[in-house]
Amino acid sequence: MLDLARCRAWIEAVATAVAERKDELTELDAAIGDADHGANLHRGFTAVQAALGGDFAPETVGQALVKVGMTLISSVGGASGPLYGSAFRAMGKQLATPEADADQFALALRSGLDAVRALGAAAAGDKTMVDALGPAVTAFDDAVGKGLGFADAARAAAQAAEDGAKATVPLQARKGRASYLGERSIGHQDPGATSTALIFTALADVFR
Ligand code: ADP
Ligand code: MG
Ligand code: MG
Predict the structure, then answer these.
(1) Based on the structure, what is the number of domains in the chain?
(2) DhaL domain location, by residue (predicted)?
């Protein structure tokens, strides 16, 4: 079950991991982009921490995630802001109950992936965050289908996202800034796929 406390802990863990790994994310982006992915996400999740603090008192996990999404959209200039923002917002809109069980969360994740695809038009293998997000959503779904609980499903999703991010190394980018490099984008791990893995690892860690 993802209740509000766990949801807040998840987002807090993402913010902490982004702060810790922002230089690494920026270095990945320096190789095939414009060296700002770590800074972009750090700005975004710092704004998210502020937005979820103070007197914001969501009643559902969905309201909290919509807030996360709106804040990312308004605070991050790079491509990743609107993409992650749309994903969190779409997930939140799907979750109208105070807590989300694994089945509900699987549907929400699917909505998040659909939102990223609708906005960015990236397919599997285009060397984007979709190459981590897609496998993570499928792994979560499969785990839930097998009757596993939230914790195990989140762990499977994190592993799939991690594997998906690593598998972007040999790919040539076909979407986003990295695509401007053509074949020179080959041999580098996609920054957005890497941050997607970080987000799912943070989710799994909340259930440890
Ligand atoms: P920008 O490229 O605007 O500087 P960021 O550096 O923050 O933005 O984010 C780059 C990441 O965004 C890429 O590594 C990739 O994973 C993701 N990305 C870029 N364009 C797309 C797209 N059209 N669809 C999905 N993901 C994308
Ligand atoms: Mg960039
Ligand atoms: Mg940029």
Answers:
(1) 1
(2) 5-205
Ligand 1 contacts CB of residue 168 (under 6 A)? no
The answer to whether residues 78 and 36 touch, using CB atoms and an 8 Å cutoff, is yes
What's the average model confidence in pLDDT over 118-144? Answer: 98
Question: Does the global pTM surpass 0.95?
Answer: yes
Q: pLDDT tens for residues 23-35?
A: 999 999 999 999 9
Nearest ligand to the C-alpha atom of residue 128: 1
What are the residue ranges of helices labelled H in the chain? 4-32, 37-52, 61-75, 80-94, 102-120, 130-145, 150-166, 191-206
Domain carrying residue 201: 2-207
**How many Å lie between the centroid of ligand 1 and the Cα of residue 80?**
5
